[in-house]
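Researcher: Hi, I'm a grad student and pretty new to this. My advisor asked me to get structures for two proteins we've been looking at. I'm not sure of the right format, so I'll just paste the first sequence and hope you can take it from there.
Model: That works fine. Here's the first sequence with its structure tokens right after it:
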Amino acid sequence: MSKDQTKKGLARVNTARKIWYRIVGPKLFGQMELGETYLTSPETAMGRNIKINLKDVTGNVKDQNAYVKFTVDEVEGTTLKASVAGYELTATSVKRMVRKNTNRLDDYLVLKTKDGKNIVIKTLLVTQSKAQRSLQKQLRQKMKAFLAEEVRNNSFETVVGNLVSRKTQMTLKKLLYKIYPINEAAVRVLQFAKNNAVVMEFQNENSKSSPSAAEMHVEDSKNTVAAEEESTEEMEESSEEEAALPEAA
């Protein structure tokens, strides 16, 4: 068999042509370029998530402890437009915040933004020294009321923008400092809630009515981390009392 006949017998494999697509961020970050991707069709990129270090977005070295999440949701020619989808702190930065002889207060909130998006907020408070449980409860209630109002009066993108600029954290820290000295007031995670998530409702600070069922649900069911911390403190206090008994004798 000749070479010409062999070439004619070979089947041709049709491969789609790929091109480069730019990924740009929202107006919140000046529509800066987040990266590039090599695709056959831009529709395959729809819904993809991108996590970028905040330092690479803002250019500030102090922002290297946080990440911003983006989701591709629009195509315009060879440009893919991404919107903000979340914010979170690194695990190492959270560990550095917590020190000995302090209280770590974690909370979990499900709230609705002004533009109707249900979001999950995981917060972190670190006191300067050990605080009484009554003070810890006041700190939690004040923080929840502040964040509920902040989210209710702003769109999701504005909420993320206030976290990136640390406006929310600084305002919250000053507010809580009036109750008890605070080392850190941070939002560990901000993300979209699942479809079956129950939005929590909080009353205004000026209202004197009894707490809603959603608030009680937060205190009793959702806040498992705080319950574990309180049980640990009880064990530490009981062990200290047992150790002090021989000395008193």
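Researcher: Oh nice, that was easy. Here's the second one.
Model: And its structure:
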Amino acid sequence: MKKISEKQKGPILVIGSIVGVLVFAFGIVYPIISRNMKTREEIEEKKRRIETYSSIAEKKGSITARLEYLKNKRAAFDQRLLSGDTPAVAAAELQTILNDMASEHELMINSQRIINPKERGLLLEVPVQITTQCTITKLKELLYQIESYPKFLSISDLNIRVYRIRDPKDIEARIDVSGFILNSKSTTGKSTT
């Protein structure tokens, strides 16, 4: 082995010191700094999540109140629909309602006919056609009662035939009255709770 001279010891020590510092920096310090930066990023991400969850938790009361309000509105809306899951059951209920109204106004319904239901978005329109002979006053009262009934009822068509033009007391009226139910096609697969 060769002896190192004093002149060569200086540069070797400097180079050795630089290599030692570099090994220390890249082998020990850099991984520690890298881990600390990664930990800081994770902490910042967790802070953002906590802030998001906190804002959601703060809104819980208003969201719960809004949900209750919408449930009550839905219940009130459902009360105004005809009962029955099928158009046939709803049409039977509508016929019963119309017969009760007619008997209340001392009208005789000459004919009743169920018309094909029509889709109206979330609702299904269930129309029934009735024919009655009455006076204009009784017809007006019947039409008013249909339009102001607590359930959603609408008059989609009204045809009036007068028997005597000079004395238009007695008339024949053909009225298409519609009630509504939820459309089962548009609500399948959706939760109603």
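Researcher: Is there anything I should tell my advisor about the second?
Model: You could mention this: The CA atoms of residues 62 and 68 lie 10 Å apart.
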